[in-house]
Amino acid sequence: MRIAVPKEIKNHEYRVGLTPASVRELVHRGHEVWVQAGAGIAIGLGDAQYLAAGARLAADADEAFARGEMIVKVKEPQPAEIPRLRQGQILYTYLHLAPDPVQTAALIKSGAVCIAYETVTGPGGGLPLLAPMSEVAGRMAVQAGATHLEKSHGGMGVLLGGVPGVAPAHVVILGGGVVGTNALQMAVGLGARVTVLDKSVDRLRQLDLVFGNRISTMFSHAQSVEEAVLAADLVIGGVLIPGAAAPKLVTRGMVSRMKPGAVVVDVAIDQGGCFETSHATTHDAPTFVVDGVVHYCVANMPGAVARTSTFALNHATIGHALALADHGWRKALRANGHLRAGLNVALGHVTCEPVARQLGHAYVPAERLTD
């Protein structure tokens, strides 16, 4: 199969779909890999490294999309990229379609076979292709929150870990999954006072066993969320319903009653965000203020640490990339139900039920298209 890797063009997005090591794996299996010139140069992955791994260089995005039977990306295709997709072409990337009706409609029209990293499941449960970026984003959320609590960045002027004789900041984490756990580790390590909320008592027990009296755990419902948010200096939203839009756990009314200069970091913004006041921002303009509360809602947070993120992502995605290249998408998806769960749009149909339900499209099970 011919696989192509275009250069990412989203704002301050420097990650790349395949590393030279991943290219080498594909070439070793007899596949032809085209990488757009300069795709990885911003993170130290130069064209010479790709050539040494067996790749060929595409002069520009037009050539990359034209060459590839499968396109491997990191972020969802941007408006300039979608017209380059064609009927039956495989697109393997993050998509986050539930809050994005415009992208969904365009992908349906393209006829491409769109496999979303974020809905591929794992044998032990969870979302293994989303997990590495959730780990990065969870850790970055605390860094971003700590920075924007500084007065010069619009915050209330609180040091996250405090100092002897002065209380540390109170960090509230909504969701005890991968994002929440990584945020928790960072916040505890910096000496913050931390409260984590989740709807799973079993998950709260696990966190309590690991962190003990260094954290407080609360079962998540409307009242406990409100109480925690109003007491917080920094709130990190890390909730996720696979494939669906994130629930709005924090209302506009709650935000209006938060401490002036408090900070919210909405890691769920790719799925629409879990604060009613959230809207997606970029690394160029990462924050905005609502009712005196600083909102950090960058939709591609891991792009800021693009080298770390690229390698972590490739470790998770290369196995399925090899299966798709070796067997074609129909056979690969028939053989692996976990990969089949990643099929969101194919040949003009929506094949992810939460996306179809959220956006009002007819749902066609992936099995109908792979038989």
Outline the structure in words.
The chain has helices at about 20-30, 45-50, 60-65, 100-110, 130-150, 180-190, 200-210, 220-230, 250-255, 305-335, 335-340, 355-360, 365-370; strands at about 1-5, 30-35, 55-60, 70, 90-95, 115, 170-175, 195-200, 215-220, 235, 265, 285-290, 295, 345, 350. The protein is α/β, with parallel strands linked by helices and about 375 residues long. It folds into two domains: about 1-120 and about 305-370, Rossmann fold (3-Layer(aba) Sandwich), CATH 3.40.50; about 135-300, 3-Layer(aba) Sandwich (Rossmann fold). The protein has an eight-stranded mixed β-sheet with strand order 3-2-1-4-5-6-14-15, sandwiched between helices. α2 links the parallel β2 and β3 (about 55-60). α5 crosses α6 (about 180-190).
Secondary-structure topology with pairs:
Elements (H helix, E strand, L loop, with lengths): L1 E4 L14 H9 L3 E5 L10 H6 L3 E3 L2 H7 L2 E3 L17 E4 L7 H10 L2 E4 L14 H18 L21 E5 L3 H12 L3 E6 L2 H11 L3 E5 L2 H10 L2 E4 L14 H5 L6 E4 L20 E4 L2 E4 L9 H30 L1 H4 L2 E4 L2 E2 L2 H7 L6 H5 L1
Parallel strand pairs: 1-2, 1-4, 2-3, 4-5, 5-6, 7-8, 7-10, 8-9, 10-11, 11-13
Antiparallel strand pairs: 6-14, 12-13, 14-15
